[in-house]
Amino acid sequence: MEKSNKTISTEKLVKIFTYLCLGIFALSILIPLGWAILASFKHKSEFYGNPWALPQGFYLENFKKAFVEANMGEYFINSIIVTGLALIILLVVSIPAAYVLSRFEFKTKKFLNLLFSAGLFINVNYIVVPIFLLVLDGEKYIRRIFELPASMTVFLDSRIVLSIIYAATALPFTIHLLTTFFKSLPKAYEEAAYVDGCSNLKTLIHVIMPMAKPSIITVILFNFLGFWNEYIIALTLLPNKAKTLPLGLINLMQVQKTATDYGALYAGLVIVMIPTMILYILVQKKLTEGMTVGGIKE
């Protein structure tokens, strides 16, 4: 009995310690997040007093300054277009590729798996310069063929090109994750679909993808966060126009620091955070729910 009591008390202490660590971790995220949201409603004169004081009122002029005067609205639309298009391209390419690599046998399968696995260890920030040089060479080649004026850009300042590059850089992680998940799915479901006359494409769309919904949602969330907050590649490939939110936020920081208008600065931060928070709220159940893949009824 004493041993069992000691075991129970030890388990309780472990649970208490675990919950304590999780609570501290949650507070370390929620307190700065809540402070930034409250600060976005403060008048600039309130920042010279107690930084932890609640705002005296909801000063919505900060959001107007950030969204309209600082062009954050235009940057917001650009980010939505770039991120949405990049996710579409990524899913259209990675889901069939992962399905083929997980289900079919062919000569170059091991090499492709090794190639995508190696891509996991490449930091995108280290290959920005080669990417820029490739885009620049393509720009010069197109201008020479079609005799375009030097002032006209084709690949630079292009949201489509930026979306393609985002999708390409995310392929190794996405394909590796989906391939691993697809391998865990029982083949009996596919065999039943083939008996019913489904092609490989129909089987993928109507059988595999619904079963793989949690992993696909996870891929969408992680890549959305990466694309939405990406700065280095966007700064390199969008030098003149069509800037995304991170670039606009840097410009806003420089302007508002000079004007000492920190309320508008925090309003810009909230504008950047809102889509990620909404997306996480919408998909959190899918991220945490379990998935049963087995037990075909006979």
UniProtKB/TrEMBL annotation:
Membrane topology: Multi-pass membrane protein
Keywords: Cell membrane, Membrane, Transmembrane, Transmembrane helix, Transport
Family membership: Belongs to the binding-protein-dependent transport system permease family.
Record's keyword annotation contains Electron transport: no
PROSITE patterns: ABC_TM1 (PS50928)
Organism domain of life: Bacteria
One example of a Gene Ontology biological process annotation: transmembrane transport
Identification of the protein by name: Carbohydrate ABC transporter permease
Residue ranges of domain ABC transmembrane type-1 in the record: 76-283
UniProt subcellular location: Cell membrane
Transmembrane stretches, start-end: 16-38, 75-99, 111-136, 156-178, 216-238, 263-283
Range of residues in the leader sequence: none
Keyword Transmembrane helix recorded: yes
Highest classification ranks of the organism: Bacteria, Bacillati, Bacillota, Clostridia, Eubacteriales
GO CC annotation: plasma membrane
